[in-house]
Amino acid sequence: MFTHFRTQGFFLKKQDRGEANQIFTIFTKDFGKLKILGKAIRKIKSKLRQSAEIFYLSEIEFIQGKNYKILTDALAVEKFKNLRKNPQKLAIAYKIIEVADLFIAEEEKNDEIWRLINEVFGELNNPSLQFAGCNLQYYYFLWNFLSILGYKPELYFCRVCAKKLLPETFWFLPHEGGIVCWRCFKNFNGKDKKEAKEISVDAVKILRLLLKQDWKILKSLKISSDVLENIEKISSSYLKFLKTI
Ligand SMILES: [Zn+2]
Fold first, then answer.
1. In angstroms, what is the span from residue 235 Cα to ligand 1's centroid?
2. What domains lie within the chain, and their CATH numbers?
3. Which of 68, 112, 133, 210 is the 20 to 30 A CA-CA neighbour of 121?
């Protein structure tokens, strides 16, 4: 007899396998990220099809087969319908899923990541959330997610001289894991200097608020496109660096 495992899972990815099968990458509440085979799931008659879709939060049941875990039951709990109707929100959701899939290790339960994913998708699904807000949801996810994984950036003290950062010119250095003051930055050269990105005082403030999860203040702010652009540059350069380690 097979043991049937039940848990909630968030569908991150699906890939066709053979004529009718699919392999799902599911981030589960109780077992972390799993690869689970959906047997004959692409057949019209498959009852699992309705509840096994990307960005679905479903109650799932699986067994451990010889080579794969096999999906034996799925029931959609939340289909995030509002998110699906909006192409911009959908694009953000795909960005989140891509980062999540890339950095989450398999078969490691993580309650903090579970909570974060559910929170961010819940917000993205909120019909009153506008596009500028969904960008912020992405950065909220990204920086908190990286912090949970142990890559929390230093945003208060210079990474080199350890002095408290005053509102002046700062640089974000991905390989230093945070901000360096301009005095220390003068001594950098070559590749280190090339990879550094100037970060504005306002962008630092937003990143701090994102990491404090202070939505009360974040929601009341009008964030300029310059600041958002700056945050985008810093985020992608940090992500690019973390992908290499
Ligand atoms: Zn310094």
1. 21
2. 5-78 (2.40.50.140), 81-148 (no CATH), 170-243 (no CATH)
3. 68
d(CA 94, CA 153): 24
Residue 180 Cα to ligand 1 midpoint, Å, equals 5
d(CA 77, CA 8): 9
Distance between CA atoms of residues 133 and 128, nearest Å: 10
In angstroms, the CA 79 to CA 162 distance is 46
User: Which pLDDT score is estimated for 144?
Assistant: 98
How far apart are the CA of 161 and the centre of ligand 1, in A? Answer: 4
Q: Strand runs (DSSP E) across the chain, as ranges?
A: 5-17, 21-28, 32-38, 57-64, 69-78, 170-173, 178-181, 197-199
Please say if the pLDDT value at position 215 is more than 90. no
Q: In the predicted model, what is the mean pLDDT of residues 160-165?
A: 97
Contacts of residue 98, defined as CB under 8 A and 6 or more positions apart, other chains included, come to: none
How buried is 234 (Cβ within 10 angstroms: 0-12 exposed, 13-18 middle, 19+ buried)?
buried
* pTM (global) more than 0.70: yes
Q: Is 224 helix (H, G, I), strand (E, B) or coil?
A: coil
Residue 190: per-residue pLDDT: 87
Altogether, the residues listed in the chain come to a count of 245
- Copy the structure tokens of residue 6: 């039940």
Pull the structure tokens for residue 41. Answer: 């799931």
